[in-house]
Amino acid sequence: MSHPADDPLAPALPGTLPAELRAELVAFRRDLHMHPELGNQEFRTTAALKDRLERAGLRPRVLATGTGLVCDIGTVDGTPGDAAGERLALRADIDALPIPDTKTVDYASTVPGRAHACGHDVHTTVVLGAGLVLAELARQGRLPRPVRLLFQPAEEVLPGGAAEAVECGVLDGVGQILAVHCDPRVDAGRIGLRTGPITSACDRLEVTLEGPGGHTARPHLTTDMVTAAARVAVDVPALIARRVDARAGLAVTWGRLESGHACNVIPQRAALSGTVRCLDLHAWRQAPDLVHAAIDEVATLHGAKSQIDYVRGVPPVVNEVDSVQLLHDAMAARRGTASVEDTEQSLGGEDFSWYLEHVPGAMARLGVRPPGELSSLDLHRGDFDVDERAITVGVELFTAAALL
Q1: Phi-psi category of 151—alpha, beta or left, where left has phi over 0 and alpha has psi -120 to 50?
Q2: Which of 262, 281, 314 is the last residue of a domain?
Q3: Do 225 and 368 reside in the same domain of the chain?
Q4: Which residues contact 24 (CB under 8 A, 6 or more apart)?
């Protein structure tokens, strides 16, 4: 990985980060990478953020959940400006994933079975860096709009820590919220933007089927549970596809089907697990009723009783047009219009969407692939890593957005 002091991607415009701060932020990111913490267990990460922000003269507040924090910077006419909803929130997710780190680097995870394999350590460092820059600008009287730094726990835990953060009041006084997400398909030095849905909704589905079992010689006297489960697995996704606009992208996909223990015994029970993904916000709101009805219909046809546990995950992240334009203008001001590219809607879920249920905002794809690299390491892999020059890019993006 390249060190930020050698950054050939630095913009021609003035206002780049001092080399000392860039080096500090890379070191901070690597420290987080070495000490990953799962959702709602991010105590060390929270303490490290709190300490650094306090050393910058700020007053961060740990969330009522015990991990994560918020930190306000700047005022409007000498008042916090919260009632007017003028604050710009910059959000980072701080949790890691329960997978092993397989990289051979000196900053690899020191915690067995835990890794920052989704770039949350980068998101966190970017928001921290932006906060340090904006705090200095506020002291100089050069911050035109108050800013709130939001370090959110448990993004990887359905239905996402954002929902609980909202209940803690993190959006009080916020009029707009921005975020970035690492994208290994975009070169460092660039961002990807999209107006409208940029991620998918993602829910979890657990289904239990029950009925009288018996001998495989007499299936007519039983509920043929294996057949019933197979029909649910095959027919429910097909039914759903015919009961909603195909452009909504509502899809049921199974990841587990279990039933029976012996070749000559028809079991009394079967279990299926899967996900429900959806590209459209309106269709996502209808999804639970549609899925319940389809499962009940198929199960009843085959004589099985169904129990359905439909766990709401997250709605799609729907980027608001003015917020996308703000990110575009901020990036163009720092790196030129050529540094912004269009991005497609992802089928992955992101709990940043819960904030957008309350205030307008947008998420940008932050390029982390080394320029010139033809291959990319996908997210949620143990060998995932980033070009650390992306940290500087993200800080400059957020800083410029706060100043426009």
Answers
A1: beta
A2: 314
A3: no
A4: none
Q: Which two tokens stand for residue 223?
A: 């509920």
Could you tell me the residue range of the domain that residue 179 belongs to? 4-199+317-403
Cα 159 to Cα 24, 61, 116, 217, 353, distances in angstroms: 33, 23, 19, 45, 11
Low-confidence ranges of the chain (pLDDT < 70): 1-16, 76-85
Rg of the Cα atoms in the chain: 24
What CA–CA distance (Å, rounded) separates 361 from 365? 14
**Structure-block tokens of residue 254:** 């199974």
What pTM, to 2 d.p., does this model score?
0.88
pLDDT tens column, 324-375: 999 999 999 999 999 999 999 998 899 999 999 999 999 999 999 999 888 8
Distance CA 363, CA 194 (A): 9
Q: Are 326 and 340 in contact (CB under 8 A)?
A: no
How far is it, in rounded angstroms, from Cα 122 to Cα 385?
Answer: 10
SS3 110: coil
Specify the number of domains making up the chain. Answer: 2
How much is the pLDDT for 13? 40
Sheet holding 174-187, edge to edge: 61-62, 69-73, 147-152, 87-93, 174-187, 361-369, 191-193, 340-342
Beta-carbon count within 10 A of 158 CB: 17
CA 336 – CA 339 distance, rounded (Å): 6
Q: What is the CATH number of the domain that holds 278?
A: 3.30.70.360
| Same domain (yes/no): 304, 218 | yes
Q: Are residues 78 and 145 in the same domain?
A: yes
Q: What is the pLDDT of residue 6?
A: 45
Task: For residue 385, count other CB atoms closer than 10 A to its CB.
Answer: 21
Per the DSSP assignment, residues forming a β-bridge with 215 are 265
